[in-house]
């Protein structure tokens, strides 16, 4: 099987197997909710991963509703999917700040073909979560936003990371998007289960776009330097 075959199968078989979610928290599975998502995923992975080359794994937090929650491709909103990857998309056109940063970084790396030849992005929790605020607006919800949610999804996350590793990723070094709660949780999980020899944490793209946008180039350079350190 090619890396593409394994990635497609992982997404196709992805179902939530964790505990009962806390009240008001809903699971988000774009591979079941939208008919076109698997078609997008197959086109994307066959385009960039149609080989047996080993990649380094990058772990985010969990999919967001405006990015992978629609396209099924991590950190890739519909705009970037069409413009940067050349993958057709029909449906809601959204703009996700994290996706903007990631694809500017990918362009600086050498473009999607060069980047995806070396890296595979997913999340310790490959399905997303949403909640509804007091005004009735649906919002993203991170796996670490409540102790109850962490307890419910921890076994599912362990199972998912093991499946990602079984795809043949490099286990010497894993990259983590998020230098706060995500890094802390993944480090502890890694100490317990020995997934990777080393985890390198980088500031999350959303944090950079929201709070450090004026220093965006600094963080792009920091990402590239970190990625270059494993070559």
Plain-language structure description:
This protein has 231 residues and is α/β, with parallel strands linked by helices. It has one domain (3-228): Uracil-DNA Glycosylase, subunit E. It contains eleven helices and seven strands. It has a four-stranded parallel sheet, with helices on both faces. Strands 1-4-5 form a three-stranded antiparallel sheet, with no helix packed on it. Helix 1 packs antiparallel against helix 3, helix 6 crosses helix 10 (205-211) and helix 6 (97-109) packs across helix 11. The protein is globular.
Compile the SSE list and pairings.
Layout: H1 3-12, E1 26-28, H2 30-33, H3 37-48, E2 56-59, H4 68-71, H5 78-83, H6 97-109, H7 112-118, E3 119-122, E4 128-132, E5 138-141, H8 147-166, E6 170-177, H9 181-193, E7 198-202, H10 205-211, H11 216-228
Parallel strand pairs: 2-3, 2-6, 6-7
Antiparallel strand pairs: 1-4, 4-5
């Amino acid at each position: 099987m090619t890396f593409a075959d394994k990635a497609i199968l992982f997404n196709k078989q992805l179902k939530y197997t964790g505990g009962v979610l806390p009240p008001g928290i809903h699971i988000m599975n774009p591979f079941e909710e939208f008919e076109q998502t698997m078609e997008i995923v197959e086109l994307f992975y066959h385009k960039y991963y149609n080989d047996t080359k080993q990649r380094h794994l990058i772990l985010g937090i969990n999919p967001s509703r405006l990015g992978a929650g629609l396209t099924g491709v991590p950190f890739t909103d519909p705009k970037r999917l069409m413009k940067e990857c050349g993958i057709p998309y029909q449906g809601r056109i959204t703009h996700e700040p994290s996706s903007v940063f990631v694809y500017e970084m990918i362009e600086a790396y050498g473009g999607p073909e060069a980047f995806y030849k070396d890296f595979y992005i997913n999340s310790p929790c490959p399905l997303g979560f949403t909640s509804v605020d007091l005004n009735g607006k649906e919002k993203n919800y991170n796996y670490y936003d409540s102790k109850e949610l962490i307890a419910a999804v921890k076994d599912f996350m362990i199972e998912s990371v093991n499946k990602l590793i079984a795809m043949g990723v490099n286990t010497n070094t894993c990259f983590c998007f998020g230098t706060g709660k995500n890094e802390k949780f993944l480090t502890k999980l890694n100490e317990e289960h020995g997934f990777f020899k080393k985890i390198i944490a980088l500031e999350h793209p959303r944090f950079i776009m929201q709070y450090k946008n004026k220093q965006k180039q600094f963080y792009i350079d920091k990402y590239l330097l970190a990625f270059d350190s494993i070559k």
